[in-house]
TrEMBL record:
UniProt protein name: glucose-6-phosphate dehydrogenase (NADP(+))
The keyword Membrane is assigned to this record: no
Pathway(s) the chain acts in: Carbohydrate degradation; pentose phosphate pathway; D-ribulose 5-phosphate from D-glucose 6-phosphate (oxidative stage): step 1/3
PROSITE patterns for this protein: G6P_DEHYDROGENASE (PS00069)
Stated family: Belongs to the glucose-6-phosphate dehydrogenase family.
Transmembrane residue ranges: none
Compositionally skewed regions (Low complexity) per UniProt: 17-31
This protein's UniProt keywords: Carbohydrate metabolism, Glucose metabolism, NADP, Oxidoreductase
Length: 432
């Protein structure tokens, strides 16, 4: 069964799976490009949609944001941590998709920042190889070679150097706006926030985890507040943008099949599973300081649990949903060590172990797998275990919610809500 929202697929997006089998499970066709999606024969000149400023204005109005004077303003988008996994896998492909669809202002420039030394050409090539969109290699090369290339290169020589480079490019317009995407470990956030725009607005996008613990999270929030006002800061948990998660509230509360069953009377247990079939692969610098619980359980999986278990919000406004989620978190029993199992993946055959990753400190005890049993002490969920499981370098890549109902003989099939990035599906699973 496919989910509720059927938005028009943008031209750059991969085709969605059309069966109950997620596309990621299907055999990959042999003609895939490096980005993993099928390639077509368009060229950039023909394919890139020109930016329509009136569309941007309408978008701002729709979200209640001030309308920008894009005819006289530039926009610089800076990705800090541009050599990292998140930048390569998600941010640059998403930015490129927006650009490709004509959804960015005409005077936009992208910048990367990292400590790794790389020539501008090597940096552009690295980004080019990760673009998850349907353009062919010829178009990509053309785009990279364009004299007006939007990606000037990678700054590595300090934030001052980055600022100088941006200021030079921005001089063409009276007003310069800046967006900073902090795709870096949280302990570096504060150093990175000193490059605010002088003639336009500044926005800073901050990635989870927001610190390591309560103290560092508080310190981070206070530090950001010293440089930025709250309306300049956008905190991101990209799991909230997944199709199933966006639709979970609608699936539950607008659906007379599910809502009457959503309680301890009918549900025996719930599992939220995050399984990846690849290890850290050079991300030890970030991952080892945080571990799997801070990396995905404390944020992504807990968000899912809260949305799954919350009471019906007064409206679908963000604040109302947030209030209901907070009530779930406040009703949860404190997790003790007896409720948690942790592990670390080891080498098997030709596959490296966690400690074989050269970016991981020798002898590290950081967990790459965790299973946590949680309980919500309220009338709806009293006594129902919520099992959150997450691991890297496991046998298969998938993410799903498994709902085990009480009725039926032992071994009744659970309801599976799949969080696959290519298709949100609801199906019944194998008996357990
Ligand atoms: N990977 C993913 O799919 C997702 C990651 N995230 C979040 O994104 C953030 C980064 O994760 P990820 O990209 O995976 O990690 P990586 O380790 O792959 O990348 C970290 C990046 O930060 C840079 N960096 C590290 N230390 C410093 C420093 N002191 N000063 C400046 N730059 C630094 C690194 O570049 P260099 O060493 O060259 O400086 C690298 O570009 C984390 O907060 C993570 O939670 C969120 C969602 C998904
Ligand atoms: O936040 C993170 O998420 C990714 C998994 O996200 P997905 O959308 O690609 O499934 C995970 O690999 C990474 O460790 C973590 O930081």
């Amino acid at each position: 069964m496919h989910l509720l929202r059927t938005a028009k697929r943008p031209r750059w997006a991969p085709a969605r799976a059309t069966s109950s089998q997620p596309a990621s499970d299907a055999a990959a066709p042999s003609s895939l490009g490096a980005n993993g999606f099928g390639l077509t024969n368009g060229t950039v000149d023909e394919d890139v949609s020109p930016c329509d400023i009136s569309n941007l204005d309408q978008g701002c109005q729709a979200y209640n944001l001030p309308v920008n004077d894009w005819a006289h303003s530039s926009l610089s988008i800076v990705v800090l941590g541009a050599s990292g996994d998140l930048a390569k896998k998600k941010i640059f492909p998403a930015l490129f998709a927006l650009y490709y669809e004509g959804l960015l202002p005409p005077n936009v420039q992208f910048y990367g920042y990292a400590r790794t030394k790389m020539t501008d050409a090597a940096f552009r090539e690295m980004i080019g190889n990760t673009l998850a969109c349907r353009i062919d290699a010829r178009s990509l090369a053309k785009m990279q070679a364009q004299p007006t290339a939007r990606l000037p290169g990678l700054a590595t020589r300090g934030f001052l150097n980055l600022n100088t480079r941006m200021t030079q490019q921005e001089a063409v317009m009276p007003r310069a706006n800046r967006i900073f995407f902090l795709s870096i470990p949280p302990n570096v956030f504060l150093d990175a926030t000193g490059n605010a725009a002088e003639t336009g607005w500044t926005r800073v996008i901050v990635e989870k985890p927001f610190g390591r613990d309560s103290d560092s999270s508080k310190e981070l929030a206070e530090g950001l507040a010293r440089h930025l006002s709250e309306d300049q800061i956008y905190r991101i948990d990209h799991y909230l943008g997944k199709e199933l998660i966006e639709n979970l509230t609608v699936l539950r509360f607008s659906n007379s099949v599910f809502e009457p069953l959503w309680s301890r009377q009918h549900i025996r247990n719930v599992q939220v599973i995050f399984s990846e079939n690849f290890g850290t692969e050079g991300r030890g610098g970030y991952f080892d300081r945080y571990g799997i619980i801070r990396d995905v359980i404390q944020n992504h999986l807990l968000q899912i649990l809260a949305l799954f278990a919350m009471e019906q919000p007064v409206s679908l406004d963000a604040e109302d949903i947030r209030n209901e989620k907070v009530k779930v978190l406040r009703s949860m029993k404190v997790v003790g060590t007896e409720d948690v199992v942790v592990g670390q993946y080891r080498a098997k055959g030709s596959l490296p172990g966690y400690l074989d990753d050269t970016t991981v400190p020798k002898g590290s005890l950081t967990p790459t797998f965790a299973a946590v049993a949680m309980f919500i002490d309220n009338a709806r969920w009293d006594g129902v275990p919520f099992l959150l499981k997450a691991g890297k370098a496991l046998h298969k890549r998938y993410a799903e919610i498994r709902v085990q109902f009480r009725w039926g003989a032992d071994g009744a099939r659970p309801l599976l809500l799949s969080l696959s990035c290519t298709a949100a599906t609801v199906r019944s699973g194998r008996a357990i």
